[in-house]
Amino acid sequence: MTTYPAIRDPNRCPSHPGAVLADMLQDLDITKADVAKLLSISRQHLHDILAERKPVSPTVAARLAKAFGGGIAVWLHLQADYDAWHAEREIDTSDIPTYRAA
């Protein structure tokens, strides 16, 4: 059997956890208001996460993991990958020297 390594295009932005959650909610018969209540967050906070305007905090990640599975680390890794991708492209580090330990 031939195996192929999973290679992600480095120019493609990783999915925001809000986009992943939005996809999950499309398949479920639950309102966004009910999800916000379930997660103990405001509807506006949930809307901002789904619209990719707010990050998923560790607290919200724990609640998402309990409600939708995947574990806290999965939700936090999604957020960290998204944040790191943007930071690499938005922050100029060209004037910072690189030091190597001996």
Distinctive features:
434 Repressor (Amino-terminal Domain); Addiction module HigA family antidote; Cro/C1-type_HTH; DNA binding; Lambda_DNA-bd_dom_sf; 102 residues; mainly alpha
Question: What report would you give on this structure?
Answer:
By secondary structure, the protein is mostly helical. It has a single domain (17-90), classed as lambda repressor-like DNA-binding domains (434 Repressor (Amino-terminal Domain), Orthogonal Bundle). It contains five helices and no strands. Helix 2 (32-39) crosses helix 3. The longest helix is centred in the C-terminal third of the chain and has 19 residues, at 72-90.
Low-confidence stretches: none
Q: Architecture, according to CATH?
A: Orthogonal Bundle
Question: Mean pLDDT across all residues, rounded?
Answer: 94
CATH class: Mainly Alpha
Number of continuous helical runs: 5
Write down the Rg.
17 Å
The end-to-end span amounts to 44 Å
InterPro entries: Cro/C1-type_HTH (IPR001387), Lambda_DNA-bd_dom_sf (IPR010982), Toxin_antidote_HigA (IPR013430)
Domain HTH cro/C1-type: 21-76
GO molecular function, one term: DNA binding
Pfam families: HTH_3
